[in-house]
Amino acid sequence: MKKRHVQQTFLSIALLGCISMAGLGGCSPKAETAENQTTATPSTEDQAAKGESFGKLKDGTETRLFTLTNKNNLKATFTNYGGRLVSLLVPDKNGKMVDVVVGMPDAAAYESATEPYFGATIGRFGNRIAKGKFTLEGKEYSLPINNAPNTLHGGTKGFQYVLWEAQQPNDQTLVLTYLSKDMEEGFPGNLTTKVTYTLTNDNELKMEYEATTDKATVVNLTNHAFFNLNGEGSGDILGHVLQVNADAYTPVDATLIPTGKIEPVANTPFDFRKPTAIGARINAQNEQLKNGKGYDHNFVLNQNQGTGLNKAATVVGDKSGIVMEVSTQEPGLQFYSGNFMQSKNTFKGGSKDDFRTAFCLETQYFPDAPNQPSFPSTVLKPGETYKTSSVYKFTVQQ
């Protein structure tokens, strides 16, 4: 199994410093009196780097929206509230720009949504931890139970509800940083986190995650974008054709915690090694599909022999012809088929979050890894750097 890439901490700090400086503009000395003070009109580039207003939270906190564009006119928008991917415009087979990410109209709508994770950067620990407990270096840690009887996606106030520091050094890059303090949501260590989102000229949305800690802890970062490649509001995703580069998956119990086994996908509804419609077997009589109310499972990705990204999955929108290819350094991929969408939230385009109208492909370490010694380790220690990348590339199929 591919191990976490570890570097010396000072390299991460140096890189963070370089990127931060690239996003900082010059500052004029403060004027001594109001009469002597002059205000320069910010350039369009300066304004873009600071983003635009995305509304206020309940406590009055102002949030920002940042737009990334590439030379092919693809456009991605993010908010610093939860580090969320709000929209992603890519061309379909007819050249029409389609928003393939469902999202909310403003920060307040995200804050009040019954689904906490739309588009969010997830941490400290993506996916579930059994009964909200794990033991590290002989000490047991207890976490908030927010998905009874387990902890899901970092606890009650995971990274989806924090305000990230944002720097936009250029039109195609957004750098988000956040310090998660020692024992925040029950996790040990001051965790310094950096996520870099880049929209490349190869029509890729690149996600790079880094973290360092001053105390041994567990880390599993990902992004929880909800996709519909036919476009937000276009109906369910059951006709999308999915291929997953995995010979095995981790079956779960009735609370969606892995049993500890790694089982082959062959001769099960989880065999997506050949392109298959998401809805082809989703209602099959199968205990695992019953447990997840559909697909909500971790796939054990086949690893290549190189040191780069592994192919994880390919999805094709059956109406749009949009193709999304997912590559990652992570050992696992959570495929979620929107089973808990309940028409309770209104998206930015006016449609509801109806049952199975979006899907997620979350690159990750395995769920409940802190309690499963046979799974790849998610432990991060002082002096190490958690560093991993995932790429979502968009093309069209005529």
UniProtKB/TrEMBL annotation:
Signal sequence, renumbered to the chain: 1-22
Required co-factors: Ca(2+)
Biochemical pathway: Carbohydrate metabolism; hexose metabolism
GO molecular function, one term: carbohydrate binding
Residue numbers binding beta-D-galactose: N127, R128, D296
Entry superkingdom: Bacteria
Assigned EC number: 5.1.3.3
Subcellular location, record wording: Cytoplasm
EC class (word): isomerase
Pfam families according to UniProt: Aldose_epim
Keyword Zinc on entry: no
Any GO BP annotation: glucose metabolic process
Reaction catalysed by this enzyme: alpha-D-glucose = beta-D-glucose
Predominant place of localization: cytoplasm
Keywords, in A-Z order: Calcium, Carbohydrate metabolism, Cytoplasm, Isomerase, Phosphoprotein, Signal
Active site per UniProt: H224 (proton donor), E362 (proton acceptor)
Record's compositionally biased regions (Polar residues): 34-46
GO cellular component terms listed in the entry, alphabetical order: cytoplasm
Stretch list, region Disordered: 30-54
CDD domains, per database record: galactose_mutarotase_like
UniProt similarity note: Belongs to the aldose epimerase family.
Subunit structure: Monomer.
PANTHER family cross-referenced by the UniProt entry: ALDOSE-1-EPIMERASE (PTHR10091), GALACTOSE MUTAROTASE (PTHR10091:SF0)
Protein name: Aldose 1-epimerase
Organism in which the protein naturally occurs: Rufibacter immobilis
